[in-house]
Amino acid sequence: MLLHVVPLDEWSADPGLPYAPPSLAAEGFVHCSPDEQAALAVADAHYRDVPGPLLVLVIDESLLSGEVRWEGSEDQVFPHVYGPVERGAVTAVLEVLREADGRARELAPWV
User: What stretch of H or E contains 70?
Assistant: First the structure.
């Protein structure tokens, strides 16, 4: 399973289409995380000031049509999806629970 952090507005923008975040057009891939701890670190580092709900997509990589490559340095390797994320590959959606200052605290089922 792969995890991808996304603001609710971005995830719900085009529900009839595969999910294609700005990074896909800009960098050629969708950034993902290998586990909950990494997803929370990404949320804390890059999305602390984003208003509104912040979600984490749980993605079954076997259901993706795009290639998944594990890339990075010797110390940190992250999965990158080279193509859009088909909505059928998203097996769960979690919410990042945040402190008042925006710090990511934990993941919980999104209702």
Answer: strand 67-72
HSE of 18 in the Cβ direction (CA atoms, 13 Å)? Answer: 15
One-letter amino acid of 104: A
Could you tell me the two tokens for 49?
């000031």
Which run of H or of E encompasses 24?
helix 22-27
Distance in angstroms (rounded) separating the CA atoms of residues 45 and 19: 22
Q: What is the pLDDT of residues 20-47, one digit of tens each?
A: 999 999 999 999 999 999 999 999 999 9
Going 83 to 47 to 58 to 13, the CA torsion angle's sign is negative
Diameter over CA atoms, the chain: 38
Tokens (6 digits) for 50: 């984003």
CA-closest candidate to residue 64, choices 99, 18, 105, 107: 18
pTM (global) more than 0.90 = yes
34, 78 contact by CB (below 8 A): yes
How far is Cα 51 from Cα 10, in angstroms, rounded to an integer? 12
